[in-house]
Amino acid sequence: MTVILAICVAVTFAVSIYLMTGRELKSIAMGVFLLGHAANLSIIAMSRTPVRHEPQLLKGPPILTASFDPAQPMSQIVDPLPQALILTAIVIGFAVMAFLLSLLVVTSRQAGTLSVEELAMESMEE
Amino acid sequence: MNLSNLIILFIAIPMGTGVIGVLLKQRVQIARVLGVLSFLATSALAVALLIHLRSHPTGILVSQMGAWPAPYGISVVFDSLSGLLVAASSVVALACYIHSFSTVDPVAEKRYFHPMVQLLMFGVNLAFLTGDLFNLFVSFEIMLMASYCLLTFGGSRLQMTQAYKYVLLNLVGSTVFVIGAGLVYGMTGTLNYADLALFVAERQARGEALPPGFTALSISLLLVFGLKGAIFPLWFWLPDTYYTCNVSISGLFAGMLTKVGIYAIARTFPMIFAHGGSDATKVVMPILAISAAFTMFLGVLGAVSHHNIRRILAVHVISQVGYMVFGLALMTQVALAGCLFYMIQHMVVKSCLFLCCGIIERHTGTDDLDRSGGLLKRDGYLAVVFFIAAMSLVGLPPLSGFFGKLVIVREGWETHWWLSIFGLLTGALTLLSMLKIWSYCFWSPSAQAIERTPENLPNTSSLRPAYVGATLLVVVALFLGFGAQPVYEIAFRAGAQLAQPDEYIAAVLGPDALNEVAKYRATQTHLAAGTGAEVTP
Prior knowledge:
Chain A is an all-alpha fold. Chain A contains four helices and no strands.
């Protein structure tokens, strides 16, 4: 399972970096969003039973996995903290996505172009 | 009354004022008053808590969010390091905010300017106070989102393109931070600073190796914090972005945002990643030292070469950050104290210089040095303020910069004498660049008759708030210079707590947390004393 996750993360990273070397600001923005998704995937790979503090100390219902064995409830516990981290990262990524896309719209209105070369030439002239 | 409960006010007051500011979108006057009140409240509270800390036994105030015990919940910690930085940043925010009443465009001001400044300070205060690595990430994001909005405030084409660069770079940095935080959790099982420090201390006391990849992880986190702090190979975003935005906002950013990155390095590396003689120390400290040299020296060379006041000041931020990284690279108690004092006085002085630049621009209509002049006669008060701030930056005794540089350069003299020489050379070149601004703007006669056309001076608001803001900061800078002794006492306490994190761990996790480590350390000393037999306590 971890191997499949690792391959997914690697492929997503590769695609996002390929997009970030694109010619238009749109492609670069898409690449950055994919980068965030790859990071979230990589945190899922950290989800396993907690290593540092005893599982019995976690108060509250255990989070069930697919193969729940009632005789040994603590053996199938999944660590809920990385899921909280990923949720936070997704929400932050969503907010940044909204901002970046609106920035793209305003830039294209102001500058008339979204091509990286033309925008760079403008800022070099000034 | 338990004063630890007051810590949450630093986070709640700016957040609440920001939310109210969003509701008060059109009523600018009320928003201004509320904003000033909120910054006054946080500054006063920070100074009061700092004075209280001097008589406190451990000097650390801890509060757990939601009363969940550490390390399951998130701690907010007000110790000497966080406290000094929160106090300084609140005062700087107050001054820049008052200054912005003169410089911000009245039409655009109604578009959520005031809530954005409040939310920026919410993020900054949360970053300084939190005791949890992922909460640090969240506070970085809050701070960055507010800074994106403030950077593009005004909507000119240049601002949009520069802001885009800044946004993209910070997004990449955030992604690396997320991955780093996840990896820290995977390797150690915790995200709380005190718990991480305990993890490292336990491993070192037992003589076990740290988990494989810990050094690489620390370097990737150094990358993220260095991107925020604009240290050597990661500084290229700073000169371009800081000069395009509104002057008061530049002052706010220059004072605060880079310091958050340096604070993060100061908080995590001496306690956790580069603690004791771990492998990470051997890798991280040379990197920091070389980076400090390049940052200091190349930064000031860049500053000397420019001819616009704003660009000079923006590139200067980089070279002064180099001094702080110099202090961090040494990682002793004294060096960390010097770094902390330097951070505080730089926040105050650099923002003061930007605010003076704002007033200069109002007088001359431009920030180009060739077209300015004769301000000494026109505005003697501004000349005095600028001179004091500039000489504080350079480090003339008895002003504040001198005491910061003195501690750092002297501490580095034994081990990294070449860095100290770079530091002194940088000081000389800093003097050169400040004198350049002084002589072109103030000392030389007026270059040409300044035509007050509507395009030249679009803003006709009163300049009095600008003077109030600059005066406030110069008074604080003078206090830091002449009254450096009490501030240094707090800074030395912070340095001691960073270099030897036992007090911090005991304060956050409770006094029983260190029992295991104490047992292992006792067995180590018995073994080392040559008794031969292992004594079980």
